[in-house]
Design goal:
Layout (H helix, E strand, L loop, with lengths): L1 H18 L18 H12 L16 H13 L5 E2 L3 E6 L5 E3 L1 E8 L2 E12 L8 E7 L7 E3 L2 E2 L5 H20 L7 E7 L7 H8 L3 H5 L1 E8 L6 E5 L6 H12 L14 E2 L10 E2 L8 H4 L5 E7 L26 H8 L2 H18 L5 H9 L1 H46 L9 E2 L2 E2 L47 H4 L2
Parallel strand pairs: 6-9, 6-10, 10-14
Antiparallel strand pairs: 1-5, 2-3, 4-5, 5-9, 7-8, 11-14, 12-13, 15-16
Length: 489
């Protein structure tokens, strides 16, 4: 028994050490923004994105026309931003003067039930001096508004959770960069991707736009996924700890943003979500545009909101005690406000994501960011090789602990019963053929007092092995806020 326990403890120690990695402590500086209310700015943008007025953007469905309207508006805003440039343009997309829209990349797609054309919008805030690499900030802008929910109806969901809030946050970040003339030592891509609701089509097209040499220079790809609609905010890097994910968490802690640690039990499902996926499983943290990049050994971070710890639903839970709204007719601006507990709560959630990104990319934390990204590529390769084995190890550890607990409980219980049974006279003595015999302690586990096997039959001394297994304008909360907010961009 003791030998078995020792062997199990050794196994647990080996798996435990292999699954753990010491945190790197970064010298994080708190980021101050004065009286800046990013949450309100992002909220007003989200209100505009959800508006069904003529100048609103409630319909952003890929291939249905609303996506083109949204893409052109994003491009018109971004091209006016300080030091924002783009090498993307499409000759078929021109303004009233016949000038091609800069920053818009049109591409064709094909699905089993048809195809079409949709658009990515990508602008880059160029690095100051020689660039140390490229950081991608991504969000999909499309929704399922005009997609068929049934044979006779369409969704008509403005997609506030998936992913209007992410667009509003990313645009707020871009605007802050421009207003404050921020340039880092990295090129920063602001990528608004189309076709995300149909399997991250825009992300795949965006990845293909980089040459092999350019991909090697991508330091980190950050995806904003369904932010502001869940109970908690997470920053998922990989299944094994990475320095760059720890860096974002430490930025969040320094600025009191309340990031929730990614749970050990990630609710893994066997299967693949993108072609040529390097792992045979997936979970909620892997659902997003970033996986197209992670699958090509590019370091990624997925900033998402949900309630990952709650296991009341087979899939991930968005908000405790509520049905999920992801890609349903209930994914609306009004529902987000109601489910969150009011406008202020929505603004607070949006504000946290903006401040997390700006804090991580601030010039005050430039050295810490360099340190975090210096190991990213190496850790990405190691993580891919060890991610599946780590999850298997954690499963084995959990099962081994359960086995140890059972053995320990049985051993303690047996010793307790045997020790205390000597102090009592059994109510019924042991009998053979109806004749009373000497009273002896009854071992309910089928062992005698010396630990030898017994048949377990009423205290019979015969040896044997024990048997196992027997037995709005901003003044209201409506989606018709109008289009004036985008005019400010």
């Amino acid at each position: 028994m003791k030998k078995l326990l020792i062997v199990i403890l050794i196994i647990l120690s080996v798996f435990g050490l292999s699954a753990c990695q010491k945190n790197v402590e970064f010298d994080i500086q708190p980021t101050t923004f004065g009286d800046k209310n990013f949450g309100k700015e992002a909220y007003l943008l989200l209100q505009d994105l959800s508006s069904q007025k003529a100048d609103g953007f409630a319909d952003r469905t890929a291939g249905k026309g609303g996506d083109k309207k949204m893409a052109l508006q994003l491009a018109q805003s971004l091209q006016t931003f300080y030091k924002f440039t783009s090498d993307k343009n499409h000759k078929d997309l021109t303004d009233e003067n016949g000038v091609p829209y800069v920053g818009v990349d049109a591409f064709d797609y094909q699905l089993t039930n048809g195809g079409g054309k949709t658009y990515n919008v990508v602008y880059t805030c160029k690095a100051v001096g020689e660039s140390k690499g490229r950081i991608l900030l991504m969000a999909q802008y499309d929704n399922l508004y005009a997609h068929n929910a049934t044979e006779n109806s369409i969704y008509k969901t403005d997609g506030a959770y998936e992913s209007g809030a992410s667009v509003a946050v990313l645009m707020t970040i871009a605007r802050y960069f421009s207003e404050n003339k921020i340039q880092l030592q990295y090129d920063i891509d602001f990528a608004f991707l189309g076709g995300g609701s149909y399997g991250w089509l825009g992300a795949q097209e965006y990845l293909l736009s980089f040459s092999a040499e350019e991909r090697e220079k991508i330091a980190l790809a950050v995806n904003l996924s369904s932010v502001a609609g869940g109970d908690n905010l997470y920053a998922y890097g990989r299944d094994k700890k990475t320095d760059y994910a720890d860096y974002f968490y430490q930025v969040g802690e320094k600025n009191s943003l309340g990031l929730k640690a990614v749970p050990h039990d990630k609710r893994i499902t066997q299967g693949q979500i993108v072609e040529d996926q390097k792992t045979t499983y997936f979970h909620a943290g892997m659902l997003g545009n970033h996986m197209c990049f992670a699958n090509n050994l590019i370091p990624t971070l997925n900033i998402m909101s949900a309630n990952w710890e709650d296991n009341s639903l087979p899939s991930i839970v968005e908000k405790k005690g509520m049905n999920n709204v992801y890609q349903t007719t209930q994914d609306t601006f009004e529902q987000m406000i109601e489910r969150s507990g009011g406008r202020e709560k929505v603004e607070e959630s949006l504000d946290k994501v903006v401040k997390l990104a700006l804090g991580a990319l601030s010039n005050e934390n430039a050295k810490a960011l360099d340190m975090a990204l210096s190991t990213a590529r190496k850790q990405e390769v190691n993580t891919l090789a060890q991610g599946a084995s780590t999850n298997l190890a954690l499963t084995i550890v959990a099962k081994a602990l359960a086995i140890v607990a059972i053995f320990v409980t049985l051993g303690v219980a047996r010793k307790f019963v045997n020790k205390n049974a000597k102090s009592y006279t059994p109510i019924i003595g042991n009998h053979i053929d109806g004749e009373p015999k000497e009273n002896k302690p009854i071992d309910v586990f089928g062992w005698d007092n010396n630990g030898n096997g017994g048949s377990g039959n009423n205290g019979d001394d015969k040896g044997g092995q024990p048997k196992i297994g027997d037995g709005n304008n901003g003044d209201d909360n409506t989606k018709d806020g109008g289009g004036d907010v985008f005019e400010g961009f």
